Amino acid sequence: MVLAVDGLRMRYGDAEVLHDVSFSAGHGEVVVLLGPNGAGKSTTIEILEGFRLRSAGTVEVLGVDPAAGDERWRSRLGIVLQSWRDHGNWRIRELLHHLGTYYAAYATNTIERPWDTDELLAAVGLSSHAEQKIKTLSGGQRRRLDVAIGIVGRPEVLFLDEPTAGFDPEARYEFHNLVRRLAAEHETTILLTTHDLDEASKLAHRILILNAGRIVAAGTTGELTALIAGEDEVRWSVDGQHFHTTTPDSTGLARDLFTQYGASVRDLEVRRASLEDTYLALVRGQEVAL
Ligand SMILES: Nc1ncnc2c1ncn2[C@@H]1O[C@H](COP(=O)(O)OP(=O)(O)OP(=O)(O)O)[C@@H](O)[C@H]1O
Q: What are the recorded Gene Ontology BP terms (predicted)?
């Protein structure tokens, strides 16, 4: 296992913010941590990065306890924090090149380090800004640079804390492709936090829903959606009259409609219970068939 977390607990003073969190992830797996503000996502990720010391439980990242990770171990991780602002006067290409030199000593027979600067600029869509000073970038461009800084050392594990906050739809789409590529071609294990359910659905091999410091559900989008034994919403029209109902068997309803009204059935629309329904039910503490 690349990530192995068992019985993780975290306390800030008297407040226990993580209670018995356990999960694992293998090579090339994309795991998404979803949860409301204050659920403990950043705390979890910061403990795995070795930035915070846990109160209890066992944690291993690439077989090493993050509390005891050395430089070689750190060189195998990529980290994109929620936000950091510095290096404003550096130019984009210079900074990436400079940061990359740190990783050269940690290249292996199978992993070439660092990532070639021009290839990296192209991968994050910053080629045309390479000579600009960082302080002149827009918010979304700055976030792309954060991602580039996170992956310049060709990490085996990548931690991304809300990486797409501020991205426009095209940047988000390209970023999703990049994440898939890193996982599929480079076998990078990725732990990502987001508030965007659509993003979680698109990227995750597995979603962990964290609420008030506990994992309240884990699984694929399909598995999580199935937890809500929801009724589908069905809309249609016949001869210009619009209808709307809910049913647990939308396929059967559609079959009956076509048998009865044939080609007069128009505008048929079925909305299945979504990840959003499950998520909202879980974080509002409603009963869900776990
Ligand atoms: N340094 C700290 N000292 C005390 N409490 C903290 C500290 N850092 C975080 N907390 C508390 O721990 C809890 C979890 O915070 P965390 O930042 O991990 O949540 P999150 O899920 O990442 O939230 P968000 O979605 O808002 O980023 C919150 O209640 C927060 O107030």
A: response to antibiotic
